[in-house]
Amino acid sequence: MYPLKFEPILKQTLWGGDKIISFKHLSNELPGVGESWELSGVENSESIVANGSDKGLSLSEMVRKYREELVGEANYAHFGNQFPLLIKFIDAKQDLSIQVHPSDDLAKRRHHSMGKTEMWYVVGADEGAKLRSGFSEQITPKEYKDRVYNNTITDVLQEYEIHPGDVFFLPAGRIHSIGAGAFIAEIQQTSDITYRIYDFNRTDAFGKQRELHTDLAREAINFEVLDDYRTKYDAVKNEPVELVACPYFTTSVYDMTEEIACDYSELDSFVIFICLEGKCSIVDDAQNEVELCAGETLLFPASTQDVTITPNGMVKLLETYV
Asked: Across the chain, which distance is largest between two alpha carbons, in Å?
């Protein structure tokens, strides 16, 4: 096996902006692209290998072909032929809906699916851009429903003005939304289940409002109130800084101007690198060398023992694995 790049899956949305195409240096002129699915095993939205001898194969075909060699022994035993993570870039020109995602138990019971725990890393933010995460005050499930119907649900949500480098961890059950002007990288469980709670009474080009899932969401929501929903970390140059470690993924950021060697000999998982700024070359233990630049995502199979990252000037990467 070798390091894998994939064709991006561009998703036009009602709220999509114009940052993704230029960020990823694509020649495509598709308007209103709200999401680029960088690495996906979601049915009907599967990533396709873009390089090497397996070019043209889907991610699920790769898992079936290489099994533990690609994803790791424990991951294959747990997830079978389903790749466990979904990687996206999201560009919000308008506010996204207020939403929540179900836990594993609820998603399995209702949809025969994984739940959806996720994290956001803010890549860019227009002046005044905001994210909402969690409740700002304690409310009851009945009050939640009343506030959705009388258009005051946003009054009880915690809102944050954002800047590049901000991180938010969103366990399943946490109410949230992405605000206009936010450009983020999202790492999540492989699930496309979203309960849309409130959509600002927005209509599409045909004057139709999108479906809401207010009642389905009520059982999924964790009504606990926290003091602060942001993930705090100390930014350090030229060494990995862990941002999130949860049962579903571990993610670190690399802010580099110097070469770094990564030892994965004890890790029973694939490793994903998401390039946020700059460019670099990465060489694995089999001497496969890949160039990676801003907007690109790279998957190293679990059989990889070590990699060496050499920045071309400055580079910023996210590293994630299960």
From this structure: 60
Options 1.20.120.520, 3.40.1550.20, 2.60.120.10, 3.40.50.1110; CATH for 9-231 is: 2.60.120.10
Q: Which two tokens stand for residue 238?
A: 């030229």
Q: How confident is the model at residue 10 (pLDDT cuts 50, 70, 90)?
A: very high
pTM: 0.96
Sequence ranges of the chain with CATH classification 2.60.120.10: 9-231, 241-321
Alpha carbons within 13 A on the beta-carbon side of 239: 3
Strands 176-178 and 130-135: antiparallel
Q: What CATH class has 241-321?
A: mainly beta
**DSSP track, 6-27:** B--EEEEEEEEESHHHHHTT--
Q: Which two tokens stand for residue 62?
A: 């790769």
Residue 265 backbone zone (phi > 0: left; psi -120 to 50: alpha; other: beta): alpha
DSSP annotation of 153 reads: G
pLDDT in tens, 152-209: 999 999 999 999 999 999 999 999 999 999 999 999 999 999 999 999 998 887 889 9
Confidence bin at 88 (pLDDT 50/70/90): very high
Q: What is the dihedral of CA 106, 108, 110, 112, to 10 degrees?
A: 160
**Angle at alpha carbon of residue 266, lines to 66 and 240, rounded to 5°:** 105
